[in-house]
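Weekly puzzle thread! Below is a chain. First person to post its structure in token form gets bragging rights.
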Amino acid sequence: MALLEANHITIRFGGITAVNDASLKVEKGKITSLIGPNGAGKTTMFNCISGVYKPNEGEILYNGNHIEGKRCYEICTGGISRTYQIINLFWKMTALENVMVGFHPHVKSSILESFLGTKRHIEEEKRLREQAMEYLEFVGIPETANMISKNLSYGKQRLLEIARGLASNPEIILLDEPVAGMNTAEKAEFDKLLRKIIDRGVTVLMIEHDMNVIMGVSDYIYVLENGVMIAHGKPEDVQNDPAVIRAYLGGEE
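Winning reply:
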């Protein structure tokens, strides 16, 4: 059984069908990628999986349990975290504070304990700061800990968002265009980071437009065009699929 399955997903906005009868599976311990032209419905598919939208039709199974229609925080607490196509950080907070927000689903002390400054709250905050620092080190940006997030380079903001996503201790992380805005050196380091994430026991489902990254790291690829899944398979199969070449890579079918 796949760790995550989206079966026959259809979602409409008014008279527009953004995703039409699309299915995908994510195997545990693998890097699965979802590609396609702009406007193909990739982020909409992510939004269905992460609880932003409830599909009009179809089902989403995580560890065999239905999650379609659940709220975002329920899905996150359950083990699925994500990053966003448009970076979604707390811009006036430090990098360390941003990562600490990611621990929220697992915080034990209450708001009242925080307000009163109880011993349990103080000890927990100290522990979370230490763990947040470990995540910044894990993604390779420990020097940003006390820097305001809006002042970081675009590539480091991307890495910070990944660190925050990992802080919720997910079983699956959804990465929406994670290398957008990164330079060549940062992309090379990102390849290594993906392998570290997998080694950590976190499964990856990724949207990305950089075909060098996709073909280099993916175990399995799905291709969306106009909301319809037109192909899926291993990288070498997808790369040579005539429909994919026509729709995404710019060739002739």
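Puzzle host: Confirmed. Bonus trivia for everyone else. The mean pLDDT is 90.
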